């Protein structure tokens, strides 16, 4: 009886259209990413470094990305990043008509994840800031949610920074998920992608904190704008806000093209690989 009830409930709740399933998967995946990632930043900032440091933030985002991909990969492919989705469109692994749906899901998931971090740490935030929400300065808290450039960083250098770092991310993701390359054990892909995030964090995080992800940066930034920080979140850093949006998209597209030109186009065809395998096996038999 219980099994029948569960079956009926599942049938009622189950979506029939793939694109709706993929929307929910991407939404939930990036929600998890923001909850762990921005949550680790909040703990470090609001405790004034007592319960967090740069390495704990790297770990938070590593786990956030890893678990976000694990949550969503089986349904949507676990992109949780518009730059990755665009790269998959360029490679023909995602239909162009699905791209807007993925982008909206990722943006809304990041926005909602920021709301969750805000409510989780609301009392600590108010205690830290005495109720005043600053975008810049010694008591700034907007950087909990979105990236802001270091004082030494120009907009041009910041754009290059995002192209390089997001390009490195997409390039590594393509290598990890390429079954014709060396390959990884099934189910290990999210773990290795998380380690790539860790590597980028410790190697390329000085300039702006490696946002890498347009939805991860823009969604939380819009949230802060409406939650009390105001329009300064878009004016700060010489109108920095567009750099973590445009830079990763360019970097992801360039990385997809580079991977095709340098690696993907040089894989042997399946039939040729099978023929070589047969010849190798035959040679081994005759030599024995």
Overall form: globular
State the assembly state of the protein chains: single chain
What is the radius of gyration computed over CA atoms, rounded to a whole number of angstroms? 22 Å
The string of secondary-structure elements, in order, is HHHHHHHHHHHH
Distance between the termini: 62 Å
Work out the number of β strands: 0
Low-confidence spans: pLDDT under 50, at least 5 residues?
Answer: 273-288
Helix fraction by DSSP (H/I, runs of at least 4): over 70%
Main pleated sheet: none
Question: What is the mean pLDDT?
Answer: 91
Q: How many DSSP H or I helices?
A: 12
Compose a concise summary of this entry.
This protein has 288 residues and is mainly alpha-helical.
Structural commentary:
This protein has 288 residues and is mostly helical. 71% of the residues lie in helices and 0% in strands. The chain contains 12 helices and no strands. The chain has helices at 2-13, 18-46, 54-76, 82-90, 99-120, 122-129, 155-177, 189-204, 214-229, 232-239, 243-262, 270-287. The radius of gyration is 22 Å and the shape is globular. Mean pLDDT is 91; it is low at 273-288.
């Amino acid at each position: 009886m219980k099994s029948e009830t569960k079956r009926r409930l599942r049938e009622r709740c189950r979506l029939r259209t793939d694109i709706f399933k993929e929307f929910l998967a991407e939404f939930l995946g990036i929600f998890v990413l923001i909850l762990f990632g921005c949550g680790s930043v909040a703990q470090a900032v609001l405790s004034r470094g007592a319960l967090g440091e740069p390495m704990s933030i790297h770990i938070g985002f590593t786990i956030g990305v890893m678990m976000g991909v694990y949550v969503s990969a089986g349904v949507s492919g676990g992109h949780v990043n518009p730059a990755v989705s665009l790269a998959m469109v360029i490679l023909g692994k995602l239909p162009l008509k699905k791209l807007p749906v993925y982008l909206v899901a990722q943006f809304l998931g990041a926005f909602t994840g920021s709301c969750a971090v805000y409510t989780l740490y609301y009392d600590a935030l108010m205690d830290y800031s005495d109720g005043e929400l600053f975008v810049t300065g010694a008591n700034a808290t907007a950087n909990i949610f979105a990236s802001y450039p270091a004082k030494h960083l120009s907009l041009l250098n910041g754009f290059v920074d995002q192209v390089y770092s997001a390009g490195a991310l997409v390039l590594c993701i393509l290598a990890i998920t390429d079954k014709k390359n060396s390959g990884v054990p099934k189910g290990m892909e999210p773990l290795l992608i998380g380690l790539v995030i860790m590597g980028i964090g410790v190697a390329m995080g000085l300039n702006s904190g490696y946002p890498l992800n347009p939805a991860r940066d823009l969604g939380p930034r819009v949230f802060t704008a409406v939650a009390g920080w105001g329009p300064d979140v878009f004016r700060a850093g010489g109108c920095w806000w567009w750099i973590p949006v445009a830079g990763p998209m360019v970097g992801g597209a360039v990385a997809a093209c580079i991977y095709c030109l340098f690696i993907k186009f040089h894989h042997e065809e399946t039939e040729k690989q099978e023929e070589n395998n047969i010849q190798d096996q035959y040679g081994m038999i005759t030599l024995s």
